[in-house]
């Protein structure tokens, strides 16, 4: 085998997608905390901040070549990920439009294993009220399943999100911080199991 490096020996590649168009987005802050935990667990990480990505509304009749370079780069990152973290704000009882639009771009991730095929996904949602975060998690579960992904058993809905972080974006609630850390670690562990044995059961 010499010095060849197998795919299973490479670091797990975790891609985090989220945030909103609002500056100081609580959903982005929560996402960054979970992503840092995945990095500490040994993963290679990349953050796709939707405020910076500036993805246009998906055009169902377009091919990937019809889009600008930022969209093509976005799809290329998705194609090479082993695992994902998705974080959204809860707007009017469900996930934010900017989040849903970004996830719809998975349609352009073609190949033998398109979409989120057999890849684990950790879900996070923040909201001001008591229901929108939980509703947003449930909505994203349906999206991930339709894209052939696995949802981690640990999701993180964050209620009263404006009080859950300090002005620098760090969680002020220890329970929330711990759950985000646990989620990041669990994602790396689950992705490693799937990568080493794609037929393993996650049940």
Largest sheet: 7 strands, mixed
Q: Let me know the average pLDDT.
A: 91
Note poorly predicted spans. 1-7
Total strands: the figure is 7
Terminal Cα span = 34 Å
Helix share of residues? 25-40%
Question: What Rg do the Cα atoms give?
Answer: 16 Å
Distinct helical segment count: 6
Short account of what is shown:
With 203 residues, the chain is an alpha/beta fold. Helix content is 37%, strand content 17%.
Describe this structure in words.
The chain is an alpha/beta fold. The protein is 37% helix and 17% strand. The chain has helices spanning 26-40, 50-53, 69-79, 97-104, 132-146, 174-196; strands at residues 13-18, 44-49, 83-91, 94-95, 120-126, 150-151, 156-158. Strands 1, 2, 3, 4, 5, 6 and 7 form a seven-stranded mixed beta sheet that branches. A hairpin with a 2-residue loop joins strand 3 and strand 4 (94-95). Helix 1 packs across helix 6 (174-196). Residues 1-7 have low confidence and may be disordered.
State the main characteristics.
globular, disordered N terminus, 203 residues
Write the SSE topology.
Layout lengths: L12 E6 L7 H15 L3 E6 H4 L15 H11 L3 E9 L2 E2 L1 H8 L15 E7 L5 H15 L3 E2 L4 E3 L15 H23 L7
Parallel strand pairs: 1-2, 1-3, 3-5, 5-6, 5-7
Antiparallel strand pairs: 3-4
């Amino acid at each position: 085998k010499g010095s060849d490096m197998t795919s299973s020996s490479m670091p797990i590649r975790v891609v985090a997608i989220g945030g909103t168009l609002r500056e100081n987005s609580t959903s982005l802050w929560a996402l960054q905390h979970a992503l840092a935990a995945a990095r500490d667990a040994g993963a290679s990480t990349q953050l796709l901040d939707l405020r910076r990505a500036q993805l246009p509304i998906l055009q169902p009749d377009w091919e990937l070549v019809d889009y600008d370079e930022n969209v093509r780069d976005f799809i290329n990152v998705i194609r090479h990920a082993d695992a994902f973290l998705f974080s959204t704000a809860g707007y009017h009882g469900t996930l934010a439009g900017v989040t849903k639009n970004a996830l719809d771009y998975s349609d352009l991730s073609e190949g033998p294993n398109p979409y989120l095929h057999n890849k684990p996904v950790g879900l996070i949602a923040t909201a001001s009220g008591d229901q929108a975060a939980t509703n947003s998690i449930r909505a994203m579960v349906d999206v991930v399943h339709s894209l052939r992904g696995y949802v981690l058993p640990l999701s993180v809905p964050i209620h009263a999100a404006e009080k859950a972080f300090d002005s620098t974006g760090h969680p002020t609630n220890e329970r929330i911080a711990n759950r985000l850390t646990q989620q990041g670690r669990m994602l790396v562990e689950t992705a490693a199991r799937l990568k080493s044995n794609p037929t393993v059961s996650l049940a």
